[in-house]
Amino acid sequence: MSFNFRLIAAKNIYKSLSKIPLPWRERIVKAIDDLAYNPYRGEKLWREFIGKRKIRVWPYRIIYSVDEKRKIVYILDVGHRQGVYK
């Protein structure tokens, strides 16, 4: 199976993931991998986050953006829902 989009993670993603308990981390990594096939499944964000999307992996959020022209999904942040938008 080939990927439709390439995934590029911000440098801070690996540090953020290391702080998340393993069972949740595995679910988050799977959700990120799935973005290569369906990057538009996440909900659009607004206000200061226009152009970005989120996926919920309760209680965590994955914040990302999609570059349709280059077929790239940029993973911008991963964190608990209470702090990821700050």
Tell me what the structure shows.
This protein has two helices and five strands. The model has no long low-confidence stretch (mean pLDDT 91). With 86 residues, it is α+β, with helices and mostly antiparallel strands. A five-stranded mixed β-sheet has the order 1-5-4-3-2. A hairpin with a 4-residue loop joins β4 and β5.
What labels describe this entry?
86 residues; alpha+beta; YaeB-like fold; five-stranded mixed sheet; 5 strands; 23% helix; 33% strand
Briefly characterize the structure.
This protein is of the alpha+beta class and 86 residues long. It has helices at residues 12-18, 22-34; strands at residues 6-9, 43-44, 53-57, 60-67, 72-80. The model has no long low-confidence stretch (mean pLDDT 91).
What is the class in the CATH system? Alpha Beta
> How can the largest sheet be summarized?
5 strands, mixed
- Count all strands and give the number: 5
What is the total number of structural domains?
1
Task: Calculate the terminal CA-CA distance, rounded to whole Å.
Answer: 36 Å
Please give the count of helices.
2
